[in-house]
Amino acid sequence: MAEKVTSLKVAERAGVSQSAVSRVFTPGASVSKKTADKVRKAAAELGYRPNVLARAMVSGKSRIIGLVVAYLENYFYPEALEKLSNALQEKGYHVLVFMASQTAGNVDKVVEEILDYQVDGIVMASVAMSSDIAERCQQAGVPVVLFNRYEDREGVAAVTSDNFAGGRKAAEFLLAGGHQRIALIAGWEGASTQRDREAGFRSALSQAGQPVFARGKGEFKAEAARDAARSMFDVPPDQRPDAVFVANDHMAFSVMDVIRFELGLSIPGDVSVVGYDDVPPAAWLAYDLTTLRQRANLMVAETVATLMRLIETPDAAAPRKTALDCPLIVRGSARVPLGWTSEG
Amino acid sequence: MAEKVTSLKVAERAGVSQSAVSRVFTPGASVSKKTADKVRKAAAELGYRPNVLARAMVSGKSRIIGLVVAYLENYFYPEALEKLSNALQEKGYHVLVFMASQTAGNVDKVVEEILDYQVDGIVMASVAMSSDIAERCQQAGVPVVLFNRYEDREGVAAVTSDNFAGGRKAAEFLLAGGHQRIALIAGWEGASTQRDREAGFRSALSQAGQPVFARGKGEFKAEAARDAARSMFDVPPDQRPDAVFVANDHMAFSVMDVIRFELGLSIPGDVSVVGYDDVPPAAWLAYDLTTLRQRANLMVAETVATLMRLIETPDAAAPRKTALDCPLIVRGSARVPLGWTSEG
DNA sequence: TTGAAAGCGCTAACAG
DNA sequence: CTGTTAGCGCTTTCAA
What we know:
2 copies of one chain form a homodimer. Chain A has 12 helices and 12 strands. The first copy, chain A, has helices at 7-14, 18-24, 33-46, 52-59, 76-90, 104-116, 131-140, 163-176, 192-207, 222-233, 249-262, 296-312; strands spanning 64-69, 94-99, 121-125, 144-147, 157-161, 182-186, 214-217, 243-246, 272-277, 290-293, 321-324, 328-329.
């Protein structure tokens, strides 16, 4: 392997000082065109590129963003990851990925590791944050943005969709469809998204004077949702819900599989199903799932904007919590009330 | 934000030299238990953790692996990414992700950026590698492993499944099922995976004296596959294939949608479908897709092993190309020959 | 086993 | 505008 090409080598070849080389590669530094040309020429000949790590050390800015994810089985996240990585790349940042199982201590450990890399910021997708760790980041001066989760606690920025409103819309749609026995398969109780979706759902239902006919625990996992669906629907017809709101699409698919293929019921003939997220498979015709769309584009854009604001002005006002509107995408998995059209 | 805690601060508090602190945090360095205890105590009190970047600068090892991906819509990759990241994390490495569109120059640019981070190795998933860039990495002394692709060129390590054998199995299964008009929807021609799958498929077919009844271009994209399926199947019954091998699951789903929901044909009654990858949705009952399983676990394990070998012994023998066996998973989307059982 | 000293490759004042 | 001079926080000789 060839010798390492340093700025010093380039400087020698170009006949300038080493700092001149540095300046040429530092946007906004003052260099004469003549020097710049000489340096660029020498750099090109040598194949020189600045060492990002060295730069990070002295400048204190690594241009690395740590990303913690725990849940790539939910296809909302690959999409988000892709968009996030692209958006950050455009701003000259790169993403260091850390997988975290939702285990208690694990996330904390992972965040410590992230901090070791002197990241400029952290995005936590679908993971909860202990206050210990929040403080640790604060004290390290590293801004954190929660993605698709939030903490009630002050001072932690978060970007979500408006899950409460989304839950309401699901219920309203089912109500308008004339359903009488509306059930819910909930996600993992530890998630703010789950809590808000259920709260919104319940609020609309009770406003209409209807109870939640049945409630299953899906934990945001396909397996758990399948079990929940079995005990919810494998019952005599008169005890069976005629509609179910499933707290995310990932679970909704396995719920639909149980309803149609294990129990031989028809969707939406016997049961209407509404999901949440609008991941790509929701649009596949075999599912054709009516669902609340989380707009990954917008959520990512807002996340990046928030992060940049926090990085550039660390002493800014209290970090913002954003909740983006969440359109109902009407497809074929739930009976459509007369005259109702999709919001998407 | 509190002051930065450096090894020097810890040294002062522990009453030892700064290098003593360094040694305590360097596995395998020689320190007395007494010093170690003092240092650890001081470090804990101060919340000290070594700065990975500084360490990387002097040691030349960043413990960062660059990962280039281009294709997260194919759900084989999120799975692989998750497993890869986990496996690497266990070995004390972390993954810096770079999204690359398959555009010609783009990958090269991305790899340059990766190199700027002084990564210890690079994994390229589903992206081709120009020989320019291969040389660049070589000269920078950074080992590269191709994941789910290979280059014919010597000297580039690669991990794939045995796509030729897989293609053969697909054909043999369809043949054994008694199909007379077996078609193919191909992936992107630039990919070695596509070429091998098709070659294997053709080899078994011609060995049985059958032609490829029809061939569509799916490009590994759902949209393209949909169009290909439309023109392949929306024809008079006697010109219609009775079976189709689709070069990956991602495309197979949209092909199935066209066949069943747009054209009202039955699977496997009118048409048998076989895919490739065995991504999670292939097991969802609404698709229940017979497919060749790419064992992400094994592929990732092999990738990590290869990478570690290359990192630890840079002057090792010519990098290895591995092709892992690929079992046929028999489900309901293709007619099952009598007495045939799944390999998975 | 330990401390002192010399950098890793770069940026950021500071004079000139 | 440009060169000189200090480091960034750490590992690693080299003597002691």
